[in-house]
Amino acid sequence: MEVSGTCVFQASEKENLTAKAFSRSLFSIAQLCYLATYMADSQALSETQLASEINDRPKQKHIVTFMDAKWYNAAAEGQINKFEDYTEPLDLLRTPNKSTILHVYIASIQNETEESIEFVKLVISKCPSLLVEPNIREASTSDKMLKRTIPYENTALHEAVRNNHPQVVETLLRANPEFADIANAAGESPLYLAAVREYKEIASKILEICPSPAYIGPNGRTALHEAVISPDADLRGKLLKQKSNLAKEQDNEGWTPLHYASYANHLSIVDMLLEHDKSAAYIGDKDGKTPLHVALLNEANNLEEDEDGNTPVHLLATHGLDASSLIRHRVVDKMTVNKANLTALDMGSTVKHLKKAGYKRGRHSIGQATADKTPIIDNELMYSLQKASESHQIVAALIETVTFAAGFTLPGGYSDEDGLDEGTTVLTRKSAFKTFLVTDTIALALSISVVLIHFILAVQPTNRKFYFLFLWAFLFTVLAMTLMAVAFMAGVYAVMPHSSSGLGTTICVIGSCLALLCYWVLKAAL
Predict the structure, then answer these.
(1) Where, residue-wise, is CATH 1.25.40.20 in the chain?
(2) Which keywords fit this entry according to its UniProt record (predicted)?
(3) How many CB atoms lie within 10 A of CB 501?
(4) Any long-range contacts for 405-408 (C-beta under 8 Å, 24+ apart)?
(5) DSSP of 448-500, one letter per residue?
(6) CATH 1.10.150 is right for the domain spanning 379-525
(7) Do residues 53 and 6 make contact, with C-beta atoms less than 8 angstroms apart?
């Protein structure tokens, strides 16, 4: 008796199934029987035919035939009739990256139409195993179907989700809902892929059609981990309704969806997750921090302790966050110590409102490192800054000398006429001269400030504000140099006669270009 092979158009000889082969093919039989009832236009496939196909395929030589342009174009354009003359198994017709005709077609669809859905149905009816064929390497069909999460590349369902084809996804899932259990090489299940790409319609179809789809994603995350980050509240509700324990699933870092919602300060999502399962609030990550501790780092209020004994107040002190209302709350124990025997004041002695609220140092911390004035920068950087400070101080002193001298050797000289104006400057009424005086004075004041700052840094080289003061001194030095250059140009322009205004303008342009050049060099250096 001859029967029709699932993937081959020519008839093949049926052989008797052994008990072992039959048990391995049960899943495939269920899949193809479902196809027979779903597709009215396809021939009914008997159980013996399916069993024969599973038993015969391992005996065939699995020689992959690479698609030429003819077959590739036919697949991309959805011309199923052109494959009537192809006598080899369709699932062995591959592109160089192992994509099947179903992969090629789904990736080529621009807009879903009735014709595109029909092509998918026809391909599935001729070769159902294409539904789970990966586009990277081959494996036994029964093995692929029996394993819920296998490290293969994208199946046809993954490609349909990735390219956002909801109707194709529905067609594939109607063929067999269990295909939603398969993850690709990146560890992404179809549902996770839909959630991370925010394809609401596709995710809804997967949840609607599949009784228990895989929710997994990379790094231990689930579809709900991604859904709490997206704005789709409806998807979150459906995920929690279909699989309630997703609220307590932890990724590789120990974070639950509630950790992510707390970190992002999404209060509405936090409320939804807590209403669903309040116990998720007590789950700690790898470091023992609960979602409440994570929330505190983003200026939220809670009173729990992590595995190091740190309460939110301890974390507040070390991160410099403002939560005065929490600190002053009557139920907060202000003398609580962590496992290092440190109170909140020990960990943040510079936070003034901790002292005002009644927090005290722990007895065990007296004389410990918390009282030390340890520099906030390492020794190597401190040495470099100190050497730079010496050079900057010399530059500031030179600017101070030049600007101070310019104040008593004013351009244009002094009036020697008898009267009230004797000894005054000749160019007092010129705008350029006024600009010279103002910019020279500011440059002198800034240079004096720089010298003073570097003097302080030399006296207290381990001051905790060294880096802060050094940056201000650097800024003042650059500004003083700029104003000194402006004063020079203004002074030169002030002494130029009206007949030589062109020369004065040229000098100002040259000076401006030099200032821009200095700016570009400084920007490149920093």
Answers:
(1) 2-216
(2) ANK repeat, Membrane, Repeat, Transmembrane, Transmembrane helix
(3) 11
(4) 406/440, 406/487, 406/491, 407/437, 407/440, 407/441, 407/444
(5) HHHHHHHHHHHH-TT-TTHHHHHHHHHHHHHHHHHHHHHHHHHHHHHHS-GGG
(6) no
(7) yes
Determine the Cα–Cα distance for residues 401 and 512; give it in Å rounded to an integer.
23
Of 213, 165, 177, 209, nearest to 192 by C-alpha is 213
Is domain 2-216 classified as CATH 1.25.40.20?
yes
The segment(s) of the chain belonging to CATH 1.20.140 are 379-525
Q: If you ran DSSP here, which 8-state letter would residue 177 be given?
A: G
| 204/193 Cα distance (integer angstroms) | 12
> Do the bridges between strand 93-94 and strand 2-4 make them parallel or antiparallel, or are there none, so unpaired?
unpaired
Query: Long-range pairs for 506-511 at CB < 8 Å and ≥24 separation?
Result: 511/485, 511/486
CA-to-CA distance for 99 and 256, rounded, in angstroms? 36
What DSSP line would sit under 78-105, residue for residue?
T-GGGGGG--S-GGGEE-TT---HHHHH
- Which sign does the torsion angle of CA 191, 195, 199, 200 carry? positive
CA distance 229 to 326: 27
CA 98 distance to own-chain centroid: 31
Neighbours of 44 (CB within 10 A): 10
pLDDT digits (tens, 9 = 90+) for 340-377: 555 555 555 444 555 555 555 544 444 444 334 444 45
Cα→Cα distances 519→126, 486, 516, 522, 525, Å: 71, 14, 5, 5, 10
- Which letter, b or e, does each residue of 447-462 get, where b requires 16 or more Cβ atoms within 10 Å of its Cβ? bbbbbebbeebeeeee
pLDDT digits over 408-418, tens only?
Answer: 888 777 766 66
Distance, in Å, from the CA atom of 106 to the CA atom of 216, rounded to the nearest integer, reads 23
Tell me how crowded residue 298 is: count the other CB atoms within 10 A of its CB. Answer: 11
Tell me the C-alpha to C-alpha distance, in Å, between residue 483 and each of 5, 395, 477: 89, 14, 10
Q: How far apart are CA 422 and CA 512, in angstroms?
A: 35
d(CA 260, CA 278): 15
Nearest to 41 by CA among 144, 129, 139, 121: 121
The string of pLDDT tens digits covering residues 472-514 is 888 899 899 888 888 888 888 888 776 566 777 787 788 778 7
Distance CA 334, CA 327 (A): 8
Q: Which residues, 6 or more positions from 512, have their beta carbon under 8 angstroms from its beta carbon?
A: 489
